[in-house]
Amino acid sequence: MSLPPSEDWVLDRQFKSVPGVADVNSFGGEEKAYEVSVNPSLLQKYGLTSLDVFTAINRSNINVGGDVIEKNDQAYVVRGIGLINNLEDMRNIIIKNVNNVPILTKDVAEIRESGLPRLGQVSRDKQKDVIEGIIVMRKGENPAEVLDRVRAKVKDLNDNVLPKDVKIDTFYDRTNLMDYCTETVIHNLLEGIVLVTVIVFLFMADWRTTLIVAVIIPLSLLFAFICMRIKGMSANLLSMGAVDFGIIIDGAVVMVEGIFVALDHKAHEVGMEKFNKLAKLGLFKNVGAEMGKAIFFSKLIIITCLIPIFAFQKVEGKMFSPLAYTLGFALLGALIFTLTLVPALSSILLNKNVKEKHNVVVLFFENGIRKMFTFTYKHPKKSILVAVAFMVLTFFSAKFLGTEFLPDLNEGALWVEAELPMSVSLPEAESINQKMMQILAKFPEVKQTLAQVGRTNDGTDPKGYFNVQIR
């Protein structure tokens, strides 16, 4: 007969009271139990059975409802409260009256504190037997806010609730994952912004046009963050890592290039000195309106292509819908800024000295494309054969790409799983566990280790789980 220890109840309730916490899973240690060892000879002497002892103890640990008493216009509920608080209460439970003499549980059985048979064990570094607790966050909560509340609760429990010789020591904090994820996202974003900006500068060969185009990237991301905040969504590694800056700025490139070419033609027509004195707002308005139609419909087509991703359900929807929302909001922001901010910035930065320069990079690609076009025009059959060969090679090589395309993330922690034979005993499994921990701890990169040895849900297959943190 076992009863959960009151300490576990207290900690479980304490952590579940924290906003954002869904559950607390505990591993390791012994489960407290009250063991009742009956004496068959004494049971026979008093004409009792083991079932009588069990029934008596069970009935003494439940609440029983009674009647309702009405007095002074008030109704009072009568109930009998049965609660076993300690071993002495269990020893003094009445099983039966024999000749008006009560037979107590201590008269026919020995009652003591014990533990249930162990099916698992948790080890940490050089400590062979510890208790592990995993706090589970509610779906949709902000991890940073929940972690702050949990840390405050841990400090309160250590200082005010737990005994002096019992402390909660944090082994793994999700902050590590969040920091690595944030670092990866920022690295990818900065790398993409710099790369796109450099390429735009190489092709446009003008710092003013490059600045106008480059400023669209952070503003579009800011617009996407605001929209996601309003919708109650948070950015993650997959959604932010999938943002294509080339698609975001292509409309701005078209707009700026169209305005720049129109201004260059105007400068050649009237001369640079007169061009710098002209009022050009009408030119900006006409070119912007003309380019805006094509940019609007091109962006609308790209956003429409995201509709199938919005329709995903279950695991696919949870993984990829943030990606679609983030990219969709960024494209929408880029479209708004392209139709409004880009013409305004162009009217300020491109008001004077607009002249199309000789660009070696553009000339190189123009010559290469012209030569390729001439060759394909003269040899259509060979061109088609080469194109088909490339298509076949592409489909053939696709099977070597694998099925995972998530961004790389080095969390700094490893999860190692070792399966043992079904018939292995817990002491032998723990012995192997200790040897594996010693081997892992020898690596200089290993900061700390935590291992769980136990059985699966069906209680038949012993397994060892090793959580290794890397510096």
Key phrases:
alpha+beta; five-stranded antiparallel sheet; two-stranded antiparallel ribbon; 18 helices; 13 strands; 56% helix
Rg of Cα set: 37 Å
Helix/strand-derived class? alpha+beta
Average per-residue pLDDT, rounded, comes to: 79
Uncertain runs with pLDDT below 50, 5 residues or more? Answer: 1-6, 456-462
The rounded distance between the terminal residues' Cα atoms is: 45 Å
Per DSSP E runs of 2 or more residues, the count of β-strands stands at 13
Q: Give a short account of the largest sheet.
A: 5 strands, antiparallel
State the shape. Answer: elongated
Count of alpha/pi helices: 18
Beta-strand content: 15-25%
Q: Helix fraction?
A: 55-70%
Spatial order of the strands in the main sheet?
A: 9-8-12-13-11
Summarize the structure in words.
By secondary structure, the chain is an alpha+beta fold. It has 18 helices and 13 strands. Strand 5 (94-98) and strand 6 form a beta hairpin. Helix 7 runs antiparallel to helix 8, helix 7 packs parallel to helix 11 and helix 8 packs antiparallel against helix 11. The two termini are 45 Å apart. The model is unreliable at 1-6 and 456-462 (pLDDT under 50).
Q: What's this entry about, in short?
A:
By secondary structure, this protein is of the alpha+beta class.
